[in-house]
Design brief:
Shape: elongated
Largest sheet: 3 strands, antiparallel
Number of strands: 5
Low-confidence stretches: 105-137, 198-209, 214-237, 240-246
Oligomer: single chain
Strand order of the largest sheet: 3-5-4
Radius of gyration: 21 Å
Helix content: 25-40%
């Protein structure tokens, strides 16, 4: 991996480039066995409980995934399953692996993935399902489902648990949701309106998390350079009530800060960043990792880089 990265090979291209040498090693022998002399098949069943039945390739994918996580998030995240103390949560690890994998222009195994610039930033062409594309229109970052599954599964990341929260799964494709599509679940319907995220940018979610609820107050000083944020009933929304609650994950709080940056809610953003600075290093650590991983021309890259400038030093 180190040598290939030095040659400019990245993301999924790097993964598939590593599979060739791994297969060459496996094919040297009549059979490959574990310490109990149980044969390890090439493909196997990645979901098998018995380690020797998982198959050699499952371990190859796991090794590459852990190496990638160690590069972008650190050793603790690379070696954990679940949410160990001091490590970033599962949704952060999934997002980091997803974006790391998308650092390539094409994938030629079990499907085809192309980065094509359009008005929304990216699109997907999936050949696994007879050329079908996702039926649900969604902004975001697409990846062939089998690639996402092969990464997530051995690391204990359950894709179905994050559907309609940070990802969308449809027709053999997984889409990492755009940050703007999370506004409604993070802030609630009123909060999303208060931070000027329009209905066109919101998806109906089966998981209305409302991790960052807001309340209505009788009075609110006018925000500098902006009109008062109004609820549908006309009552203003308090800026300092847009702070995150402790049960939200680190990724949730990073996305909330990016949305506050987008809407110009400076006071709420400063309050959130101050509380994260006091909480510990994970918020800034994840922010820096995502800044390096988001596609250069994406809105997420622009928002997170602008938000970083406001983090207290």
């Amino acid at each position: 991996m180190v040598r290939l990265q030095a040659e400019g090979i990245r993301g999924a291209d790097l993964v598939f480039a590593c599979i060739g040498p791994a297969l060459e090693i496996y094919s040297r022998f009549e059979k490959v066995v574990d310490a109990q002399d149980r044969e390890i098949p090439l493909g196997g069943d990645p979901e098998a409980v018995e380690p020797h039945r998982r198959g050699y390739l499952a371990y190859v994918w796991e090794t590459v995934a852990r190496a990638a996580l160690e590069q972008v998030l650190g050793t603790a995240e690379a070696n954990t399953k679940g949410n160990a103390a001091g490590t970033l949560e599962e949704d952060a690890r999934l997002t980091a692996l997803f974006l790391w994998t998308l650092q390539s222009t094409s994938v030629g195994v079990e499907g085809e993935l192309r980065d094509e610039d359009d008005e929304q930033g990216s699109s997907v062409s999936n050949q696994e399902e007879g050329g079908e594309t996702p039926s649900k229109a969604s902004k975001g970052f697409p990846l062939v489902y089998d690639v996402a599954r092969r990464f997530a599964q051995p690391l204990g990341i359950h894709l179905d648990q994050w559907e309609d929260r940070i990802i969308q799964i449809d027709k053999g494709v997984v889409v990492l949701l755009a940050v703007t599509e999370r506004a409604k679940q993070l802030f609630g319907e009123e909060g999303a309106a208060a931070i000027d995220i329009t209905e066109e940018n919101l998806r109906e979610s089966t998981s209305q998390l409302k991790l960052f609820p807001i309340a209505v107050q009788d009075a609110l000083p006018k925000l500098r350079g902006r009109k008062k944020a109004q609820q549908k009933g006309g009552a203003p929304v308090s800026d300092d009530l847009l702070r995150g609650r402790h049960e939200a994950t680190t990724l949730d709080r990073v996305h909330a800060a990016m949305l506050l940056q987008k809407s110009g809610r400076t006071n709420a953003l400063r309050a959130l960043l101050k509380s994260e600075k006091e909480r510990g290093p994970n918020f800034e650590r994840l922010t820096n990792a995502l800044s390096a991983l988001y596609p250069r021309d994406s809105e997420e890259k622009r928002l997170i880089d602008a938000m970083v400038q406001a983090i207290p030093r």
